Structures are given as structure tokens and as C-alpha cells.
Amino acid sequence: MKHLWNRLQEVSKVLLVLVLLAGTFAFAMFQGGFVSWFLFYSFLPFSLYSLLVMIYPLSDFTVSRSIKSQELKAGSSVIITIQLKRSFPVPLFYLVLEDQVSTSIFSTSQVSQVKKLIYPWFKKTIKLEYEIENLPRGEHDFTSLEIKTGDFLGIFQKSRRLHLKDVILVYPSYVQMNYQPLNVRFDQGAASADMKIQRDTTVATGLREYQPGDRVSWIHWKSFARTNDLMTKEFEERKSHDTFFVLDRTPSLLFEDMVTFTSSLSRAVLKKGAQAGYFSSGSSNQLVPVKSGELHQRQIDYQLAKVQPDSRRSFNEVIKTEGVSMAPTAIMMVVTSQLTRELIEQIHESSKTSTVMIFYIKAKGVQGSSEEQQIKALASSKGILVKESYAGHFANVFSEVKQA
After folding, report:
1. What are phi and psi of 307, to 5 degrees?
2. 372: burial class by Cβ within 10 Å (0-12, 13-18, 19+)?
3. Is Transmembrane a UniProt keyword of this protein (predicted)?
4. Which candidate, 140, 118, 141, 143, places its Cα nearest to that of 129?
5. Would you call 300 helix, strand, or coil by DSSP?
6. CA pair distance 46, 60, nearest whole angstrom
7. Residue 16's CB: how many other CB atoms inside 10 A?
8. How do residues 149-200 score in pLDDT, each as one tens digit?
């Protein structure tokens, strides 16, 4: 039905142009004189051009889109280049090009940037660029391109949508942190977040007498054959400090700051040569196992680029139900903007075998309340360190922890 209605509109527009052309011609024939013929000859090119636009197929256009960089960081800019080509250089007075992009990539003031007005006339190749500044973190889709044109009189207007899909992934921004392994004590008991001692069993540095509990593989059998005394190989000790980041995905105005902090923290830890893992839970779970290396950093950043504050459960419920997904032997570093007694209790219950540190992200200039001080005291009594970190001031967070 809609297709039939469009056909009827096209036919009526053609009849309108023909009637106007015939009317001006009849007026010139019957009236005569310079003015009437001037009116006819003035209207003739406009009417013929309108009919030309009507019959010219926009399918003659082929469009390509190129993006200079498809992996970007939040806050950066990107330049998109669009190129149109056609076979027949039919003169077109104007052409409106609209790039269909997911709205998440634009602020209100930037939406007009994807809509461009150009004057191609006889050009067979048209190239234009536009820039998107201050890119937000996330995955953004370019789905299609729409081209529109029309005649001088505004009678005929044509449009065509060309499906052309591209995706850019904008990674979270980060700041440089000087990460230092922590060794902190609390009011009741002690909890160490220092590096765990591991033996490098590939390098033997000496021998000692056998002690109950030593592994059989550590026994030095050659010396036992010579002296008939059991001796155990001593190995070089090396230190490691595995960390595991847990990001709170409950809706928060500070969520982007939390993602920036997590990205910065993971980079600082991995830069020290340590191992790091990542977990968050929302509409779907994100889990990156504890590993090290530059490739592993990209895996964490990839998850952080796509993460959204879409959890429908409270964070303490996530800790309770998803605690099995977390690394029990690593230092757990929790990043949240909501500090509650229930959260402290649940973290203590779910992480009895690991050291926990909570980074409490707050807006700049927000002062702590007495309730927060009581919650921090509760956490300290359970061996959990809570560190307040203000948005925009993440660089010195570990030096501040050391001083504390």
C-alpha cells in the first residue's frame, strides 16, 4: 500500500511539472509579447531539470567509508572519510549525505557533524571528511549512509540508503600510576598484601638437611648415594604479587571514572611485571584470568572498553553469588563508588583466603561522612583496607596509601 502511494505521488508530481510547462507555453502562445515568452523560456530549464532528476537513479552512486584508526582511546578524536563515485556525471544541484552512527558516540552539539551538504554538479568522484572529537569509551557502530538530492523547485526529492557497516572500539582512558606492593596492618590482626614467596624449582642454589614435608622431587639423590644422608635441594626464591580486579557495575554517575581507574591500575600492576586478572558482572559476566604481558593488558582493556553499568543486582549480591569466579590466592582489588556495611560483610565472608583492598571512588570535593568513617573502621577490623580516591586524582593513589 505504501509503495502504491509513493508511485501515485511521483506520477502526480510529473503531471504537475507538465501542467505548469504546458500552462506557461499556452500563456505565451495566446498572450504573445516579450514578457510571456520570457516567462516560458525561464521556466523551461527548471522543468526539464526536474524531470532529469526524477529519472536519474541514485543507484548509480557507490559509497565507501574509511576510518583512519579503529582502536582509539576515550577523549581522542577520529577522522572519517567518505568517498562517492558514479558513472554518469548528471549535474546535481545539491546532495545531502547523512552518516548513520550509533548515538552513543555523539554529544548533543555534535550530532550535526554526520550530516553534510555538498554541491557535486558534474563531479564523478566526491570526497569529504568529518571529525568526531572527544570520543566516549565503548563500541560504536557505523551502520549505513543515506544520500538525498532534489530539483531547484523542490518538487522532486529522492533518497537512497546504502548499507555500509563499520565498528570502532574506543578504549578507556588511563593515567600513569606508580604501583607499589602493599604491606599494611590493621587495628585487629594483620593482613599482608605484599608479594607472595614462590620457589623457582628450575634453579638449585644449595643443599640442606632433609626436613619432614619436603617434596620427594627436591631430594638430592646423588649426595644420598655418596653419604647415605638425605639432603634437600635449596632453590632461589622469587616474589610475585598477583592481583585480581573486581569492578562494580551497578549504575553510578562515577562509572566512567571507575573504568578509568581500573584501566590505570591494571596497567600499573602489569608494568611492574606482576600478574593481573579482572572480573565484573552485569547483564553478562566478564572474566579475564590472572596472567601477565602486553597481550593480556589488551584483553583487559577490551573488556573495559565494552563494559556498561548494567547490573540489576546490588554489588554485595554479585560478590556473594560470583565469588567462585574470583582468584582466591591473588590480592583482590575492588573498585566501587558505593560503600555499604553489607558490602564489607559480604567481601569478608567471600574472601577469607585472600587479601582485599577496596578503592572507593568519589566525586571531587565530596567530604566523607561519619557513616563512611564507621564503615571504614568496620572494614579495617576485618582486615580490609578501604582507600578513598577522588575522580581526576588517581596518579598518586599508591603513594597516599603508603603514607596512610
Report:
1. -65, 145
2. middle
3. yes
4. 118
5. helix
6. 23
7. 14
8. 988 877 888 889 988 888 888 999 988 887 776 553 333 333 334 444 344 4
Mean pLDDT per block of 10 residues along the chain (404 residues) reads 69 75 80 81 83 86 85 86 90 88 66 76 89 86 89 84 89 85 43 41 64 71 76 60 89 93 91 88 90 89 92 89 66 90 88 80 83 89 87 76 47
387 pairs with which residues across the strands? 359
Distance separating alpha carbons of residues 270 and 276, to the nearest angstrom: 7
Residue-wise DSSP of 303-356: HHHH--S---S-HHHHHHHHGGGS-TTSEEEEEES---HHHHHHHHHH-TTS-E
At position 323, the amino acid (one-letter code) is G
With cell 648415594, the residue in question is 225
Burial of 137 (0-12, 13-18, 19+ CB in 10 A): buried
- The answer to whether 150 and 158 have CB atoms below 8 angstroms apart is yes
pTM exceeding 0.85: no
**Structure letter (DSSP) for residue 219:** B
Place of cell 616474589: 239
CA distances, 259 to each of 221, 271, 276, 370 (Å): 54, 18, 16, 27
Whole-number Å distance between alpha carbons of 314 and 158: 52
